[in-house]
Amino acid sequence: MTSESVCIESSDVTISVDESASRTWRRPFLKWAGGKYSMLPDLYQIIPAGMRLIEPFVGGGSVFLNSDKHACFLLADVNTDLINLYQMLAVVPDTVIRHARVMFDRLNDAESYMALREEFNAQVMDGPERAAAFLFLNRHCFNGLIRYNRNNQFNVGWGKYSSPYFPEEEIRAFTRMAHNCVFMAAGFRRTLALAECCVTAHQRGARVVIGNSTAPRVIDLYSQHGFEIRYISARRSISSKVSTRETAKDLVAIL
Predict the structure, then answer these.
(1) Distance between CA atoms of residues 246 and 234, nearest Å
(2) Predicted confidence band at 201 (pLDDT cuts at 50, 70, 90)?
(3) Mean per-residue pLDDT for 177-190?
(4) Long-range contacts of residues 188-196, Cβ cutoff 8 Å, at least 24 apart
(5) Predicted confidence (pLDDT) per residue in 79-94, tens digit
(6) Residue ranges of domains in the chain
């Protein structure tokens, strides 16, 4: 089970439905299971303005990339390759883009993909090159699935795409926001330890927003701890066939 939460250090504001419905949403440059892009019009209504947005499960970054309500961001994820990519784009974006462009132009076949994956898993690349390789793997692997084996090796196969899109425009949009971000690699145990901090932050006026599945046990847990429960439609994108990708309801718990 996965969840995504944000904490906003602010007082509440009211956002009109028309404002959310009419705006254009920035797409993340990564494919990401559980991404919140399809939920943004609804989430925009829930997340208030404030000084800082905190995301302990940032993933593909759809929420923070579309936040024009916050001055700075604290963004964490357990995936160290993801955080390395974000950090490298924050400090040496042109170097990462240059490495990635070469990979996109030259390596879109099964043999080249597997060779790069093997090199990636050998942990021999420096920060910018590894960041570019992670981007390449994400855009060329099957359905953009990010998965590691017990030895912490990336093990998703080639996606067989004829001409994968190189998201330079989306990357540049990310880098324009990155100077206002702090990126942290943090596992779930460290994140769970912050639960008490969420309560403390709420007591001083922050709003806590958590996204999760609609499993009955999950609903009961959040309800018992005083969260307001709402439901938002979310598109599923992992199925191997586009025709079988369905829209499902996700839970949004608000404190």
Answers:
(1) 9
(2) confident
(3) 88
(4) 188/78, 191/56, 191/57, 191/76, 191/78, 194/56
(5) 999 999 999 999 999 9
(6) 4-78+186-254, 81-169
Averaged pLDDT for residues 59-67: 96
- Rounded to two decimals, the pTM is 0.80
172 or 19: which leads in pLDDT: 172
CATH C-level class of 4-78+186-254 = alpha beta
What DSSP line would sit under 119-137, residue for residue? HHHTT-S-HHHHHHHHHHH
Mean pLDDT of the chain: 86
Q: CA 135 to CA 79: how far, in whole Å?
A: 13
- The neighbouring-strand residues paired with 212 are 251
What are the Cα distances from residue 142, in Å, to 59, 83, 126, 160, 197? 18, 21, 25, 8, 38
Q: How far is it, in rounded angstroms, from Cα 149 to Cα 153?
A: 5
Query: What is the dotted CATH code of the domain comprising 81-169?
Result: 1.10.1020.10
Please provide residue 229's backbone torsions phi and psi, each rounded to the nearest 5 degrees.
-105, 130
Q: How far apart are CA 168 and CA 174, in angstroms?
A: 10
CA distances from 211 to 24, 33, 71, 169, 245 (A): 22, 13, 22, 28, 20
For residue 174, give both structure tokens.
């990310």
